[in-house]
Design brief:
With 166 residues, this protein is an alpha+beta fold. The protein contains 5 helices and 4 strands; from the N terminus they run ββααβαβαα.
Amino acid sequence: MCATFPYVLPNAFLPSNPIVDVMDAGIRDNFGQQTTLRYLYTFNKWINENTSGVIYIQIRDTRKNDISPIKKTKDLSDLLFEPLFTMQQHWSAMQDFDQDDLLNYMEGYFPDKFHRVIFQYVPQKQDKAAALSWHLTSREKLDIAHALDNPANQSALEYVVKLLEE
């Protein structure tokens, strides 16, 4: 039932009475953070007593807090349609803001033992980003693989290695 993107794939329906129309969980939590944080909260005492800490790794297909710039000049279609699509365009950034807030609370349950690491797909050329598709082209696969060479991702990888060696 995941990946039921509106207009791309059909909605899933549960065989119940009444029938339940199911939407992709990404509408609420695109990266599964809330489930992860609930798990960590539930077991925080055990984790603190029996481990050296938590390495929280997030792998993103988008840049964190990526907000499109506001157009300086607008035509008629912008004036008509921009209000309708503003929420959609900024949905990911709104989730980031909300989930960063939750992560800040979570760090308090693991004093000096909570390490957050983010890997992000940043395309080499913005206009050549990998498509949201079931079938990636060879060029798109290569672009995703090269995202590991991004300086921020290299730094994140070095940090994970350092944490694991401690």
